[in-house]
């Protein structure tokens, strides 16, 4: 029992001590604030020292304006009628947002259109823009010398158009030389980009243009391999004669005949990512 009483008494004493410390701190803070802040004394002005407001009779239009002494153009005081009759009217200048800050001689005078100044230097002559070659990506050969890109059918310039249905006869045997020529042309293209010089105004579904692939002219390649006939008077005539003498292309035998040396085709899968070639022989 005594132990409980001692504990209770100790707790009450601790609370009393803490409360006293708080009161002492608050009193010290109040004393410090009162010492740092001086007492402010408000002074009330004497009403007798304030000048009385003018009466209504002296306000408004009845109050005379001090316009000063009018002067002449040279700065001396004016004499005669000018000195006896002071000028009370003064022209007011209209202030507008667009005219604010500009001299009166500019805003009051009417606007006058003047000729533009001459150029500081002679204008450079712009060179006439010339259309560059048209790049056809992944064109499809539908015949030897005829390619198709999107909805455009393009005939290679400088050679006669060939049909895929053309047949040739060699040694008494007929073979589909048109299809073989188309396959050889497709293997040469390998779905690569072709650069063509499109004629002006060729906006229709078909056109004729000279094209190249990797710097190799397509018409020259077809003629060199015997898969195209050059137009009369073309510079490719000598190449066609050489292909005829070598019995290449249309002038040779069926390359599918295994009894003869098979024709070597370019690998169509090179650089295309295709697993197997897709010839249409």
Describe what this molecule looks like in 3D:
The protein has 281 residues and is of the alpha+beta class. The chain has a domain of 118 residues: OB fold (Dihydrolipoamide Acetyltransferase, E2P). It is 26% helix and 13% strand. It is built from 6 helices and 9 strands. Strands 1, 2, 3, 4, 7, 8 and 9 form a 7-stranded mixed β-sheet that branches. Strands 5-6 form a two-stranded antiparallel sheet. It starts with a helix and ends in a 36-residue tail after the last helix. The relative contact order is 0.08.
Write the layout of secondary structure elements.
Blueprint: H1 2-36, H2 81-84, H3 104-108, E1 134-136, E2 140-143, E3 146-149, E4 152-156, E5 168-170, E6 173-175, H4 177-189, E7 194-197, E8 206-213, E9 216-217, H5 218-224, H6 237-245
Parallel strand pairs: 4-8
Antiparallel strand pairs: 1-7, 2-3, 3-4, 5-6, 7-8, 8-9
Shape: elongated
From N to C, what is the helix and strand string?
Answer: HHHEEEEEEHEEEHH
CA gyration radius, whole angstroms: 54 Å
Give the count of helical stretches. 6
Q: What gap, in angstroms, lies between the N and C termini?
A: 118 Å
Mean pLDDT level? 75
What's the architecture of the domain at 134-251 in CATH terms?
Beta Barrel
Main sheet properties:
7 strands, mixed
Helix content: 25-40%
Q: Determine the CATH topology of the domain at 134-251.
A: OB fold (Dihydrolipoamide Acetyltransferase, E2P)
Percent of residues in β-strands: 5-15%
SS class: alpha+beta
| Assembly of the depicted chains | single chain
Poorly predicted runs of 5 or more residues? 71-83, 126-130, 268-279
CATH class categorisation of the domain at 134-251? Mainly Beta
Count of β-strands? 9
